[in-house]
Amino acid sequence: MTSTTDAISFDTTPAQRPLVWLPMDHRRHGGDDQSLPFLYLGDKYARAVRDAAQAQPVVFPLADVAQIPALLALVDGVMLTGSPSNVHPSHFNEDVADASLPLDPERDTLTFALVQQCIRAGVPLLGVCRGFQEINVALGGSLHQAVHHVAGMQDHREDETQPLALQYGLSHAIDIATDSAMAGWAGGTTAQVNSLHGQGVARLAPGLRAVARAPDGLVEAFEIQGASTFAVAVQWHPEWRSAENPFYAAIFAAFGAACRQRQTLKPTGAIAYG
Fold it and tell me: What CATH class is the domain 8-25+37-273?
């Protein structure tokens, strides 16, 4: 029988999958006087990281801003996921336009700092939907709180009365910048994407380059200019059944490749417990 004091070694060579940090949502359940806090991560995001990016998703429950440098040293990439909640409009100097929509100020605080530190540390960064909006606001941009109320813009929301397969089905075309990596992933300068968002970019932050737009001109994807590694965000949901969509799969493949590249630059060895 192995003694409980014997060391257990875990191989941490580059052959092991890279680690991707997915920040969690904060929500409360129960009555107003008896609600309890819960932490959430959408299954589809974790599965896309595991299966399409070929990386291991990890979470750090209750991580705070002060811990970001130490935690980033442990991982090889960061994915900012979508969420039912919206970025609080106070971050772009506006009042809340619709009090019925959920907010998540705890997530805002963590992810805004995380975006800045990922860029400084050269950590691969992928933003999806809310994550796309977080990056824009964290770097000084603003959002339309209701795109469908903006003159000339189409309604980008899903029909929640429909089955999920239809809600996440292809909704509209995007025009992609010819000289962007995204054009390579899409296999051309046009593609079809899903659309499940009420908010969207109003003012693009300095240092961001729009690389895809919807027919109404709304920014659908951007890259962080001058980034030393993968730093891309999209407004749609490529995590949805990514294996069935070569364009979506290519986004995650490129992100995973960047995470593996970062992994090779980190010290290797064995971590012993015992």
Answer: alpha beta
